[in-house]
Amino acid sequence: MGRTALLATESHTSDAPVYRGHPLLGAAPDFRRDPFDTLLRAARLGPVVRFRVPPGVPIRSYGLFSPECAQRVLVQETGGYTKDSAPYQEVAAAFGNGLLTAQREEWHRQRRFVAPLFTPRRLEQDYVPTLVAEGTLLRDRWLAAPEATLDVHAASVRYTLRAVGRMLFGADLDPLLPAFGPAFAQLNVHLRQRLTASLLAPRSWPTPGNLRGRKAQRSLYGMVDAIISDRQTAGRSEDDLLGRLLAARHAETGEGLTAGEVRDQVLIFLLAGQETTSTTLAFALQFLALHPQVQRRVAAEAAGVLDGGPPTGDAVRTMPYTQQVVKETMRLYPPAYAVSRYTHDGDVVGGVEILPESNVAVGTFALHRSPQLWPDPNRFDPDRFAPAQVESRHRYAWLPFGAGPRVCIGAQLAMIEATVAIALLTHRHVIVAARRDRPAAPVGAVPAGLVLRPAWPMPYRLVAQR
Ligand code: HEM
After folding, report:
1. How many angstroms is it from 24 CA to the middle of ligand 1?
2. Which residue has the CA at smallest separation from atom 24 of ligand 1?
3. What is the pTM for the complete model shown?
């Protein structure tokens, strides 16, 4: 339904309350300082909030903080909301035109193209064995480390990067590890600077920030091009993402994809699929160390499945409590802490008018900590995801993977990746703080580009169960 029709049917619409922020610069400095706290404070003003922008800035910006509003924008009115929002324009400029950023017919085509790689059968039969092998390697490396102590974030990055490399690109990405993390981190810093800048220089200007961003982008392009050319040289034709991209032909011309098209897709999958999952796994492992009684339940579940041998494809379904732990982790620390869209025509959401030509963001971080939806919202409690509790909540109260047609295509894969690793690690071992004489640091996150990541190092030990 278009805006005009909506306005005619709504009996009463009101203006959104305004989050003011800095008297001159509006909300941008607060987002730069602490986006999580800014989202939480904005959510207290109402389910739809307008963020003030500096005078003269033409674009408007809104935050949405209720499941109903999220449903309208992400699920029901998808025709009226596009990815032309400022954050997605920046992502597209930095990472190209892959499935995450593509739009309209081009997106439909790309989604149909990769969907066969994410069917339940594919996940269970092809990916679980890879994940079991990689999870076992993660456990063995952890045990072999000095004092069996590892930074769980770094270890999770290695596990997910290796796993994604093998599952989607048929490649060993270990050699890329030292350069990959810093290049991504640098590009994320650049993205975040641009997204929270009060005054934005055009991308083409040779500002120090733009130059650093371009350098990081070149470095990532180089790595992705190496993955692609290694595969072409090897001449293998596997039916994974890279194999499909290399074999694809344009419908009209019959020509293959250009090197740039293949690279964009590979890069977007690395962006969307790797960092989010490693962050989730790292936070989940930290929560387990901080909550021994939860860890004991997870270990008991792992024993029930793994005592009979390595997990098979359907193992994840037989570990419901471990999945609850992963879900509760993503409630408190949703890697994509906000999901943005753009409306050209405007809309009425929850009785509040959204003006034309606006950026609109579902404030996932704040939605996941709304006291109306989640009693005692800051407490870690995996039982919130027990079936009866899930039934009693609004379907869109929990949105770590987004919702609607653009929902994360890797959601099931991410759940399986985290669940398999946790099961293998806790089966015969216990995750504890690195120093018994010192309590572990609390869980904390910082923004990195459009995602969040752990705020500090996470050293933990893996010790044998007694
Ligand atoms: C815990 C892990 C993950 C989280 C929290 C996450 C989160 C998200 C979210 C919120 C979106 C929707 C963005 C929007 O609507 O604007 C999304 C889309 C996407 N994700 Fe994930 N993701 C995760 C893992 C993965 C994995 C493992 C892959 C692939 C290997 C992946 C690939 C993608 C792609 C390609 C899209 C774009 C889908 C489309 O627009 O059709 N993600 N993800």
Report:
1. 35
2. 273
3. 0.94
